[in-house]
Amino acid sequence: MLFSLIGKQMKMLIRNKQPLIILLVMPIVLITILSLALAGVMDNGAEEAIQARLVLVDESTWEKEKASIQEFLEKEGIIGPPLEALLTQIENNNPIQLLENNILASSEIEKYISVVHKKPEDLDTIRQDKEVDGILSVPPSFRLNYVKSAYFDKQIEPDLDLYLSQENEIRASIIQSVISEWQYGFTQSLALSKAGLPIEEVMGNTKKVEKVEQVLEDHEREIPSSIYYTVGMLVMFALYVPAFLAGFALQEVQWKVYDRLILAGVSSTLYTLSIFITGTLVALVQQIIMLSYGKFALKIEWIGLEGMIVIVLSYSIFVGGLAALLTTLQFRSKSDGILNAFNGFVVSIFAFLGGSFINIGDISETLANIGDFTPNGAAMTAILSIQKGEELAVIWPFMAVLYGYVSLCVLLAIVLFPRRGVTV
Amino acid sequence: MLQAINLHKKFKTKEVVRQVNMQLEAGESVGLIGPNGAGKSTTISMLSSLIMPTSGDVEWQGVSITKNPESLRKVLGIVPQEIALYPELSARENLAFFGRIYGLKGPTLNERIEEVLQKIGLTDRQKDIVKTFSGGMKRRLNIGAALLHKPSILIMDEPTVGIDPQSRAYILDTVKQLVEEGMTLLYTSHYMEEVELLCDKIYIMDQGAIIAHGTKDELKSLVSDNQTIELKAHILSTKFESALINQFPKATVRKEEDLLTVTLAKSEEPLATIFALAANNDVMITSAIVKIPTLEDVFLNLTGRALRD
Q: What residue range is the signal peptide (chain A) (predicted)?
């Protein structure tokens, strides 16, 4: 019965043009207009992608160095099958091989660093390219020096050249953190492998991913107008979902369909629950569509997936609770006065205080603090914090505000629902 | 048996229903007639457990439904005066939704939907969105939605309001068929002819109270001592109307455009006198019809007003 009620409410929403226009078309149009119009004011440069571009210039290929390494090993007295075995091990487990195949090619690191291979003669040109965030240059005798240093304790440092661009500090830091961890790994590798740990494990990805995340946390990301207004419109227009659902509920009473539901044994609790769930689902879908629009049309790179899921889901649950409360209030008042007041007054005030149109903190810190106690303001600040690269823990106070509102809405919806039927 | 006992409903200070007593036996078709605002809809809302009476009670099978409405609700189908449907859904989607909330599902639900669509003549239009339907089609679907769960009592509140004659005839045929199949029916209307056609027993309601009830014949016998004469003339003067009232002080005289309706005792021999009064008042009568009493006459006799005044 619950699914039938939810399905019916969904169909009513989808088949009405007005809700579709207000819940989806209007916010998307506003996001586009505001993002473009205010980009000059808000954006310090274009939205910066998080994925860093690393150019790898390897002058020390295995093919070039194999002969000299073999010669060195023979001089050290390694011949016959042990020589062949050692050569195979060096070929497969040398640090450059591991960096390229195990670390940079891994799915965890790939989303933070893209790698391009270039020849040494291109180095000058590459350094002029502002799109490049880092260049890792492997000198001609790197592998040989590594073998000498790591396997035979020769006092030769297997040096690498890492050039980092000054164009984008975060992306450069991401490259630096991964390469530093890798360098640290390969200097330690032999000692640790002697202790019985395989070299791949010693130089695994986990630490490097943690380092990248640390970089992102340490560097607060600039919020461009596209992100600001996508989030601002997303939290504001979700507030119209309850108004539509409560409006349909009042129509059900006016058309006497609600009488049919009562006669069929649909309890007030079940009916309110169906409104709550529908509100939650519609708000969730609406927010996903807007976030997707931001991603694909405005090329926004949403970060902090975990945090985003928690916030969007929590805000959707709040919208569901608000839909249940507005329905109850409408049933009590038996008119659409409450809805008109909500749509015309409450949403505007909340949108202003919550910062959907302007960053209220620029006007007054007190107002910004009050705004953070509005449900939309709390959700917006939480999302923007995550998008700045702040840690997940920062959202919990805002989630507490949201769930406080959810509890209040559900409690009032239950307490105030007319027990003796609803007639007009 | 469904029984209303001294039902009384007050909205703030206004008494809408006053001490109503009614009975519906199984398989009986009962009409509730009265003008707009007589309290019919409020009465059926109380009878169907949708609103609580201010005082009095409704009993179903001897049990008060004000305290235990569930037993009645399961077997009750209600056709409200409003089109209680979802205009954005198709006819079939509406029926499927109402069927599901009554717990029907799967093949049983589909089978039942087909039966109902056939009964209300909308099989061909089942996939169309309701808001594209004519008024008559919406009314038919409104009835269909009340029949899905096979109720044993059907309460219909003005089911033919505002529709074309063909749709009205279709609906009346459908309801008649339901009655013949044994459905217990409570039918409210201000169309006397519908109630006369469909109902065995009739309650007449005016200003919140039942002013008469009985079978059609019993009600007509209330005015059987009277005769109704309908007079048509080129110009019906007030002077002539006054002369009639003076001549027949116990008669009810009602004027509607060029028609004058005179209800008076059968014992009187009025025609010669009426024609003489017309001649004296320069009124040329073009037709004079002596009518057999109808429920309309009963209502007129009881209230002094026509049902649709």
A: none
Domain locations in chain A as residue ranges? 2-46+222-416, 52-218
Can you give the three-state secondary structure of A123-175, one letter per residue?
A: HHHHHHCCCCCEEEEECCCHHHHHHHHHHHCCCCCCCCEEEECCCCHHHHHHH
| Same CATH fold assignment for domains B2-219 and B225-292 | no
Class of domain B225-292: alpha beta
Provide, as residue numbers in chain B, all residues whose Cβ is less than 8 Å from the Cβ of A4: 97, 100-101
3-state secondary structure A363-376: CCHHHHHHHCCCHH
| Domain B2-219, architecture per CATH | 3-Layer(aba) Sandwich (3.40)
Q: Using alpha carbons, select from A266, A275, A271 the residue that is nearest to residue A324.
A: A275
pLDDT band of A47, cuts 50, 70, 90:
very low
Sheet holding A161-164, edge to edge: A113-118, A52-58, A134-138, A161-164
Distance from CA of B126 to the nearest CA of A (A): 17
Share of residues in chain A with pLDDT > 90 (%): 34
In this complex, is the C-beta atom of A254 within 8 Å of any C-beta atom belonging to chain B?
A: yes
